[in-house]
Amino acid sequence: MANVCLTLQYVGTRYHGWQVQPNGITVQETLQDAIERVTGIRSAVTGCSRTDAGVHARRFYCTTAQPQRLSDEKFVQALNAVLPEDIAVLCSRAVSDEFHPRYSAVAKRYVYRIWNGKVRNPFEQGLSLHLRSPLDETRMNEVAQLFVSTHDFSAFCSAGSTVQDKVRTICRSEVKREGNVILYTVEADGFLYNMVRILVGTILDVTAGRLTFESVRRALETGDRSCAGTTASACGLYLDEVWYREEGES
Amino acid sequence: MANVCLTLQYVGTRYHGWQVQPNGITVQETLQDAIERVTGIRSAVTGCSRTDAGVHARRFYCTTAQPQRLSDEKFVQALNAVLPEDIAVLCSRAVSDEFHPRYSAVAKRYVYRIWNGKVRNPFEQGLSLHLRSPLDETRMNEVAQLFVSTHDFSAFCSAGSTVQDKVRTICRSEVKREGNVILYTVEADGFLYNMVRILVGTILDVTAGRLTFESVRRALETGDRSCAGTTASACGLYLDEVWYREEGES
To answer: How many CA atoms lie within 13 A of B9 on its CB side?
Structure first.
């Protein structure tokens, strides 16, 4: 059995997130079913992130054991033939047994998508957060800049997280407008539970005057969750890319 | 009762086309239901085109009678509140009783969308035709140029059409690539039944070597359907815009 890393792309709308759970269909379970149909063996799949229900992925990495009978290309084709239309395997490659899709990651990029048209856009359903009132993307970008640097992001993490060390380094945090679409892009060495959705909620709350810049600075200094903003809806969130250290690097 | 023209946008995937029919849910019926819920009156709706099952619209115009109690803005808001997520009313405006969304149209633009990536794209599901093999968009555009001009398009019309005069003028017909997406844009003073889908099928057949340029020229000269190409799948087709003569013009 070889350890292979699969690159996935999926529309999260129909799924209760990545991770197998009793109360709903998940991407992990759907993929494990597909692998079982193709290989005849039930193999566990390990993902790079636990995306929430409704969150999408343009690039999602996971590992699984693959009996070495199929070439990478054939394995990809066979999986896509049995997977539902809203999940695609883009590629498969052999990795060492030391490679872990979550712990070997050195950075991730998320994108949050907002449809800022007066009327909803049917082509954006489930794919963006719809906000009717015109948003000031320059102001939004000013708030986004506050997050760039190394901080304790405890204030930007939902309760229920068991992670001890909440210090993360955000190296990119910016808001751009493309017509009626507003995109927030954030890159960091790691993210806490619901962190991007709280960053977005905070940007929106400050821009709308419900929260002050000062409160955001306090949130970053004190780790007080109540100084940060609300948690933006899952449907606008995309895991966009994950970067790994080269194998052999330490 | 005022005659109002509604501008719609819809994802056609779930619908058996525009026009009311016994065997499936249609956009027309869904809209008529919404108007009845908002106004309390069952009003007929007249559309600008009979889009097929699975065809989408970025701009679709239709007329209906509106009791004059609601402003245009309130009418739009009320309709969007009761319509399903995959249909949106963009605006409503009063038009004269002479205005007809189909017969007053002077030109229409359709766009056909192809996803030309090796692997399917989950974000394109139902929204484009997926063709795996790399397509030569320059060659496709050369075929598309053959259609520009005034022709009898009988060869590019499905059986079952009752229209007598099949002469139409195409003023724009072009193929462009944007990354893995190929877009065919066509503008004409009118379109026959399945015409755009047959134009696309012809472009694809010639590009793949299944049909010759000469055969396409013969199709345009003789009206022989068998000289033209196949009918491309509905899911890549978008009614993109409809133009009307100014009211008062003749």
So the answer is: 16
